[in-house]
């Protein structure tokens, strides 16, 4: 028997597979224009790995969870991220999940979600915002993060992604160093996370999930802004799919 969690986010789909005991496999792919097509590609890839969907338990979560016709059940990403984070960290914490289109703060108590807060629907302060700004600077997200470490503190004041992009272009035109612009972009995201966390409240332990967990420089700068060591894991981007897979063992 296999237990499969599928987390279809707005920009990337993550998949985790357990057997009766261990985490066997994780993989990710772009969500693309159609979550339905992505779910078909996921099924094909699993079957190539000799994982029989019909003999497995499958839970889908995330933005495109209703687009997985072979899922036995759908569960919200809040619950799945909580379950997956507790598996990875092994204790209660405050989860910061920076996704492609939103940011979520989740409190875990006794291994379960006790409270959560989400940002508004604006993309500012999300992974998509960072991706757009990196493209404007002509660098990768990893490069932007490294540049930000050596930049001077400046503020990107626009709350709207479109206006923020115009502000970045103006800074480029005025001769501001790219490192400082990169620092301002990261400051914009960490500042919004700080405000959301302040509104929500935090425990002593903070854990970062989502694609930005792989950008070490971002985790460092977020820790500076929050005034607490932000923990993460190489598997933290799979927290949602891991949680979904674990929850599938109960159906």
From TrEMBL:
InterPro entries: ATPase_BadF (IPR002731), ATPase_NBD (IPR043129), CoA_E_activase_dom (IPR008275), Dehydratase_Activator_Redct (IPR051805)
Pfam (any one): BcrAD_BadFG
UniProtKB keywords: Iron, Iron-sulfur, Metal-binding
CDD domains per the UniProt record, alphabetical: ASKHA_NBD_YjiL-like (cd24109)
Keyword Metal-binding annotated: yes
ATPase BadF/BadG/BcrA/BcrD type domain segment(s): 4-247
Domain of life: Bacteria
A molecular-function term among this protein's GO annotations: metal ion binding
Co-factor(s): [4Fe-4S] cluster
PANTHER family: BIFUNCTIONAL PROTEIN [INCLUDES 2-HYDROXYACYL-COA DEHYDRATASE (N-TER) AND ITS ACTIVATOR DOMAIN (C_TERM) (PTHR32329:SF2), BIFUNCTIONAL PROTEIN [INCLUDES 2-HYDROXYACYL-COA DEHYDRATASE (N-TER) AND ITS ACTIVATOR DOMAIN (C_TERM)-RELATED (PTHR32329)
Record protein name field: CoA-substrate-specific enzyme activase, putative
Organism: Tissierella praeacuta DSM 18095
């Amino acid at each position: 028997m296999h237990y499969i969690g599928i987390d279809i986010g707005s920009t990337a789909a993550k998949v985790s597979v357990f057997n009766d005991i261990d985490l066997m496999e994780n993989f990710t792919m772009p969500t693309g224009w159609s979550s339905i097509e992505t779910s078909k590609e996921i099924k094909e890839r699993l079957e190539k790995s000799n994982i029989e969907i019909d003999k497995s338990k499958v839970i889908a979560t995330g933005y495109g969870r209703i687009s997985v016709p072979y899922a036995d059940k759908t569960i919200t990403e809040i619950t799945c991220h909580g379950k997956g984070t507790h598996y990875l960290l092994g204790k209660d914490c405050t989860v910061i999940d920076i996704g492609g289109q939103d940011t979520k703060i989740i409190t875990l108590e006794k291994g379960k979600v006790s409270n959560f807060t989400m940002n508004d629907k604006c993309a500012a302060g999300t992974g998509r915002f960072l991706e757009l700004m990196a493209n404007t600077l002509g660098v990768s997200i990893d490069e932007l993060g490294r540049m930000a470490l050596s930049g001077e503190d400046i503020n990107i004041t626009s709350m709207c992604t479109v206006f923020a992009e115009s502000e970045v272009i103006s800074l480029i035109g005025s001769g501001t160093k790219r490192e400082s612009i990169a620092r301002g972009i990261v400051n914009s995201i960490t500042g919004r996370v700080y405000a959301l966390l302040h509104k929500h409240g935090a425990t002593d332990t903070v854990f970062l999930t989502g694609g930005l967990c792989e950008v070490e420089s971002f985790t460092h700068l977020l820790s500076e802004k929050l005034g607490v060591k932000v923990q993460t894991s190489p598997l933290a981007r799979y927290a949602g799919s891991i949680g979904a897979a674990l929850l599938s063992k109960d159906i």
